[in-house]
Fold:
Amino acid sequence: MIEADEVKTVRIWLKKDLVKIVQLAKLADNLDLVLDKPQMTKYNEAVKIWDIVQDIFAVIPEQETRILELAYIDRLADMQILERLGFESTATFYRYKRRAISDFTELFILLPIGKQQVDKEFTARKMIRN
Structure:
């Protein structure tokens, strides 16, 4: 069972970092010819993380994937997502969104690179609070 703090940390990671990872991963193919090996490290890591995210999206329910993509990659507001996906109730939408984040978290933290991202985000949050 995942902890509430893990879900919160992954939600923050999705909101803060996922779009950057997608951008870096998409640039990596083009930059491979231009950058030397040390500079490519962050791009290669972004590609690995993006591959994992896509693998998780492939196994969670399609509606959950769409919610996560629209919220954290396309950066749409909740009301825009609610309308686009045809939810008739705000409460139902938020229940699906919570489930999507929870299901994503459960799979993401099982993988070493996912756990590493969550731990890094959790440590950063802790330092800010102190």
Observations:
- The mean pLDDT is 87.
- Residues 32 and 40 are 7 Å apart (CA to CA).
- The two ends are 28 Å apart (CA to CA).
- The chain has one domain: 4-128.
